[in-house]
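User: Just a sanity check before I run the rest of the batch. Below are the structure tokens for the first item. I only need the designed sequence back.
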């Protein structure tokens, strides 16, 4: 009986994960929180964000990024220069320390897709391939969140569930 309850609880947790999240493993690396933002029509570039954990005993490096949906993809870093946030291409690659975790975000390291072939629309998926020195190459996708989004909802999905509940209440009130 307890075993059954535990299984049911586990199923509930999985069902509660937001639709805008996935996780992938590549060798010793675990990649999570893969996201980007919707863009206005004709935007010349789009960012790409994800978190990479290295569970291995040797450092790895994210060296190359690419997407069939963009003319070009680069690794960038945001830095303060003369009091202004500016970005520049990363030289070499982004080191993922052994036992460490690196977050690509709008405030620091990020992927820059230059010349997206189509407008990025919220709720869609944007393909990307990531090449690491040790772990190799993986092709995956980024979840396209809203324009101005700060990142994916925390794992557990409570935010998404509350949002759904509110939507239901609105429908009742609309009678
Ligand atoms: Cu950039």
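Assistant: Here's the designed sequence for the first item:
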């Amino acid at each position: 009986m307890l075993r059954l309850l535990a299984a049911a609880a586990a199923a509930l947790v999985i069902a509660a994960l937001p639709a805008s999240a996935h996780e992938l493993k590549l060798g010793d690396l675990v990649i999570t929180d893969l996201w980007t933002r919707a863009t206005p029509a004709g935007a010349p570039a789009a960012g790409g964000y994800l978190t990479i954990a290295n569970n291995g005993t040797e450092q790895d490096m994210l060296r190359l990024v690419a997407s069939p949906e963009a003319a070009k993809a680069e690794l960038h870093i945001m830095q303060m220069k003369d009091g202004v946030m500016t970005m520049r291409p990363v030289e070499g690659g982004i080191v993922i320390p052994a036992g460490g975790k690196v977050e690509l975000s709008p405030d620091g390291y990020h992927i820059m897709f230059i010349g997206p072939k189509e407008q990025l629309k919220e709720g869609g998926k944007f393909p990307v391939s990531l090449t690491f020195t040790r772990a190799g190459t993986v092709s995956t996708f980024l979840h396209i969140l809203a324009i101005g989004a700060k990142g994916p909802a925390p794992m557990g999905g409570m935010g998404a569930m509350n949002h759904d509940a509110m939507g239901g209440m609105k429908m009742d009130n609309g009678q």
